[in-house]
Amino acid sequence: MNISVIFVLTKNVFKEVIRDRIFYIIGFYIVILGIIFLLLPEFAASTEDKMFPDFALATIHILGLIVAIFVGTGMINKEIDKRTILMLISKPVSRSEFIIGKYLGLSSVLAALVFLMIGIFIGFLEYGKISYSLASITIFYLFLILELSVITAVSISLSIFTSSLLATALTFAVYLVGNISQELLEIGRQSRNLGIERLTQAVYFIVPDLSRLNLKNDVLYGLQALPDFSSLTTNALYTLLYCVMLLAIAIMIFTQKEF
Q1: pTM of the model
Q2: Which of 30, 34, 37 is nearest to 60 (CA)?
């Protein structure tokens, strides 16, 4: 596997996604925050110091998720539909390098996009003299990137063997189930039905447990609410291993695919 080839592919994906005007999302985010910042004191009375960060972080989460799913599910199929995939794989680029380059390119776009939105969010907090913990926000940023990296891996993997539309729906389903997988596991345990319990266990082990990575509430309530370092490390390693596993499966399927 050639690292320089992967780097070139990653850079090209980054430039391509930017050319698709994905960073107009930044302007949209500023406008939304500005409106909420001005209107919230009229409705929230003395609770705007919690409601504004809650809304701002949730918006970052949603916008990042939209980009990860819609761009991720369309990248591979767009290359196939335009037949540019034939030109790429005819060059000294392996299919594994192609998949990894696409994944890292979109992940880098998401990292940059979320970083900019976090910076804008902090700017609003400073302007409004709303207290915040920079350490908590930094950890939130890192774990949101991990979550979006998982969703990116899921969307790319699903798009390899199905249409973009179906891959989009399935990725959304994985995201939703992944955020309630622990609750599903508990429901299975309390059901006292062996079949349901085994089904919920299977779902828990197959679908990524995304609730491990959602630290929005921890940002709102400060460092004292953050999980301990060992839990954060375990959750990060779990996510990275899941991404590696998904990419390995995607590469295996893509290697067997005929064009």
Answers
A1: 0.88
A2: 30
